[in-house]
TrEMBL record:
Organism superkingdom: Bacteria
Keyword Transmembrane helix: yes
Protein name per the record: Uncharacterized protein
Transmembrane region(s): 12-34, 54-79, 91-114, 120-138
Keyword Transmembrane helix: yes
Keywords tagged on the record: Membrane, Transmembrane, Transmembrane helix
Amino acid sequence: MATIRAIASIPLGVVAGMAAMLFLLIPCFLMYPLPSGIDVNDPADAEAFGRHLASLPVSAFALVLVAHAGGAFGGAAFARLVEGEAIWKESLVIGLIFTAMGIVNAISLGMPLWFTVIDLPLYLPAAMLGGFSLDMVLSRQEMPTMKKASA
């Protein structure tokens, strides 16, 4: 059973992290919607999407940074929860997977260089922090509480 949990923790962590990232991107999509007529899946609209990206304020990119780091954090924490053991490997793997997806995202969407330079190094520390944070929460729950002896 432990082997199954170890194997399942990574894909489940990636799915949970992607869901967390999409949830965290909702404010960005609401505040800065795509102009009508742009289809991000249509290569013919790539130029129009690039113009839209160039017109966005720094606050939009800040929201995206938070969402990306939050997705890696949440995915690693979920993977750690599924794994059930206090090991850091799943957090490292989740962070590396999110970094790889971030590279593909930066290239395919034509993200600004300054954003990419800030964004890509955030995934791994966020994932490690997610795994370690859950370890801290779980270790506090498992530790017996000490009661004061009444005199």
